[in-house]
Amino acid sequence: MQEIKIQFWDAVNQKMWELDEAGETLNGWTFQYFAASDKTLRGIIHQMIDVGFGTNNSAEEEVELVARQYTGLKDIEQFEEPKELYTGDIVSMHQFLFDGDEYEDEVVGVLTYNDDQACVCLTKVNHHDIRKYMGYGNPEEFKDEKIPICMFYGLHETSWTYLGNIYEHPHLIKEATT
Predict the structure, then answer these.
(1) What end-to-end distance do the CA atoms of the chain give, in Å?
(2) Sign of CA dihedral 154, 156, 162, 166
(3) Which of 59, 119, 150, 176 could be stapled to 108 by a disulfide with Cβ–Cβ 3.0 to 4.6 Å?
(4) CA distance 70 to 117
């Protein structure tokens, strides 16, 4: 069974929070997480702010964070310890293909989750053969397509290379997929 792990991206402090950091403070903001009424796990940062004079001279400011789910995939090649891959990570996927002859191929995209199909997918993929195979002529229409990773052939445990993530390195997605 796949481990369920969550991280939260904090755009205010430019930090990725782990669940075991709940209650910790950075730059006056305190990280917390909770189960919401819709049964989702939510992360927030909050701080007390001064609003002026009087008996109630402070108020709480709160910012909701972006949740990232562990995909069960790892980059085991370029790190001393395997790097767990989360939704929002930009990856290069290495696959072996067979069309009479064996050849290797690299596909770059962003890991995401498709709730309708309950699977990990790649999106923001810029790969001509895949786009053509799926019937898309226009590359812009194809960029938001979520392709289940099970549709790719020849994957193996060393298929995944972590390049960055869309939160800390948004420039990478433009560079990698254009």
Answers:
(1) 36
(2) positive
(3) 176
(4) 17
Q: Can you count the helices (H) and strands (E) in the chain?
A: 3, 13
Q: How far apart are CA 77 and CA 87, in angstroms?
A: 19
Collapse the DSSP code of 59 into the 3-class scheme (helix H, G, I; strand E, B; otherwise coil) and give the result: strand
Global confidence as pTM: 0.80
| Distance in angstroms (rounded) separating the CA atoms of residues 14 and 168 | 7
Instruction: Tell me the residue type at 138.
Output: N
Q: What is the CA 89 to chain-centroid distance, rounded?
A: 4
Over residues 36-87, the pLDDT tens digits come to 888 888 999 999 877 666 556 667 889 999 999 998 889 988 888 999 999 9
CA distance 59 to 44: 16
Q: Are strands 6-10 and 66-75 parallel, antiparallel or unpaired?
A: antiparallel
CA distances from 95 to 41, 98, 106, 158, 173 (A): 34, 10, 6, 9, 20
Q: pLDDT at position 98, please?
A: 64
